Amino acid sequence: MGNPVVRGGSFVGSIQAQERSADPTPRSPFPGLTDHLSNCLGKRVLRSDEEVRGDEVTPARRRMLDAAIEAFAEHGYGGTGTRDIARRAGRSPASVYVHYPSKEHLLFGASILGHQEALEVVLDAVSGAGDPVARLRAVARDFSAWHLAHRRIARVVHHELGSLSEEHLAAVLPLRRRLVAEVVGVLRDGVERGDFELADPEAVAAAVLSLGIDLVRWYDPDRGRDPEALADLNADLALRLAGARDH
Length: 247
Fold this sequence. Notes:
single chain, mainly alpha, Tetracycline Repressor, domain 2, about 0% strand, elongated
């Protein structure tokens, strides 16, 4: 059974709640997965759960994963069956289990992939040239833009955490913590330089990330809102949250 997920709370709060519900000594069905993730988080992130497992990333496996992401985003994890996933992938129902051991493994693959892509966006923004103000603006803008451009996988990543097994949740949480830590680092640099005026970098980092995450809840491209303008708006709001001087 999945773990309860905090909906509508802070980004940091959801991490803390999931950590409390996770098994403190998880045993992953993928040997060495958690250690591998921890090592990679000090460098660059992994590309997909297939690479973690050492399996070949075949087109058929990726089609199945993409079909699952589409179905989970439309109907939720609980409302999606493997027959629907197979139909979307153009395969027979039994073929799902040829490529993935279970429906939950497909969710884990989507969660790892989405978290990695989002983290890469933040890492690229943080490592860019510029002062803390420019880097925070880039983080908020690019993180928001990624969520606008990848609404389906983003919705699955953030809304279906509670459906992951304890083992898989324990593998995903370091990626979420790293997202917060990167933004906290930018905020602290800004405080030290006198660019930002704030008392709680962790809370502000959660609020900045939540600006992008919340877009998947309400943004509808059919309503004519310009995604670039929304990303720029969130960048401005992030600077206000950080107490940027002269902004």
